[in-house]
TrEMBL record:
Lineage: Eukaryota, Viridiplantae, Streptophyta, Embryophyta, Tracheophyta
PROSITE patterns per record: UPF0034
Key word Oxidoreductase present: yes
Molecular functions (GO terms): flavin adenine dinucleotide binding; tRNA dihydrouridine synthase activity
Protein name: DUS-like FMN-binding domain-containing protein
Length: 329
């Protein structure tokens, strides 16, 4: 995995599923992170090939609940991001998925209560010994690159110190979100503090924060000196942000996302959530579209709503019956 001069899709819960990753890649994303998956959940999964959809699925044992899905086409660019607070469990989880992804990344930046209370995400920022244990264990036992994504600490000096400790573990890159744990998305990202990290390290730094237009890729690289740039909300609202040709209209991007969701059999809750995020940013969920979307219970319902029912049935009819072709490896 080459981490220099790349446009990177950030990990986003409920958004970064296979269908959205494939959409981002089609528009120009070089590296695509999946949504964070908690190690507790992955260790309960078994690997399954879904021949009908051409995907590799990690399914919770005894259920049809697909926890993570990928495909051969994204094998060289997809990063599996994991939430963990234990090195042994992290390794057990990573070993289940590592042969089907390009890299494994540890979430060390999520500020949400669920992660913090579980000792995961941003809770790791104050536990450098645990960080060492997790990353060293994974690096020692996995053949794929192991990285992590952090947030800024209370002071620039603290962030730099932690980043240096992480670099010494031999990770090939470090992603830095330019906000502190207490910051909210409306608070400006601190590009200058990302620059401090870049200046202190020799490995590629992936800068993240306030990338909302294609020109921001160049702006943040120039301001920080970062090797690559990661985008979250800007991509969620309009995945064509990755295109050097300029953004497509969000309605066109939304329609293309719906088609990808049908093509890759995306979870309907994830599909609805992502569409709602687009609508909420560009329009209003209280209008007729948002209300109709709320009533949709299946991908077929969504296809009808957005007048791509013909596409839905074309995809459905050219594929064999899924449950007859699943098998476990």
């Amino acid at each position: 995995m080459d981490y220099r001069d790349k446009l990177v899709l950030a990990p986003m819960v409920r958004v970064g599923t296979l269908s959205f990753r494939m959409l981002a890649a089609e528009y120009g994303a070089d590296i695509t992170y999946g949504e964070e998956i908690i190690d507790h959940k992955l260790v309960k999964c078994q690997r399954r090939i879904n021949v009908a959809f051409g995907t590799t699925e990690f399914v919770e044992k005894g259920t049809d609940n697909v926890v993570f899905s990928t495909c051969d086409e994204e094998r060289e660019r997809v990063v599996f991001q994991m939430g963990t607070s234990d090195a042994v469990r992290a390794l057990k989880a990573a070993e289940i998925v590592c042969n089907d992804v390009a890299a494994v990344d540890i979430n060390m930046g999520c500020p949400k209560a669920f992660s913090i209370q579980g000792g995961m995400g941003a809770a790791l920022l104050s536990k450098p010994e645990l960080i060492h244990d997790i990353l060293a264990t994974l690096k020692r036992n996995l053949d794929v690159p192991v990285t992590c994504k952090i947030r800024l600490l209370k002071s620039p000096a603290d962030t730099v110190e932690l980043a240096r400790r992480i670099e010494k573990l031999g990770v090939p890159a470090l992603a830095v979100h330019g906000r502190k744990v207490a910051d909210r998305p409306r608070d400006p990202a601190k590009w200058d503090e990302i620059a401090d990290v870049v200046a202190a390290l020799s490995i590629p730094v992936i800068a993240n924060g306030d990338v909302l237009e294609y020109d921001d890729f160049t702006r943040i690289k120039t301001a920080t000196g970062a090797a690559s740039v990661m985008v979250a909300r800007g991509a969620m609202w309009n995945a064509s942000i990755f295109s050097p040709k300029g953004k497509s209209h969000w309605e066109d991007v939304k329609k293309k996302y719906i088609r990808k969701s049908i093509l890759w059999n995306n979870d309907v809750k994830s599909t609805k959530y992502t569409i709602k995020e687009m609508i909420a940013h560009h329009s209003c969920l209280e209008l007729a579209e948002g209300k109709s979307l709320n009533k949709a219970d299946t991908l077929e319902d969504i296809a009808k709503l957005y007048e791509v029912e013909d596409y839905y049935w074309t995809v459905k009819n050219i594929r064999p019956v899924t449950h007859d072709l699943n098998y476990v490896l």
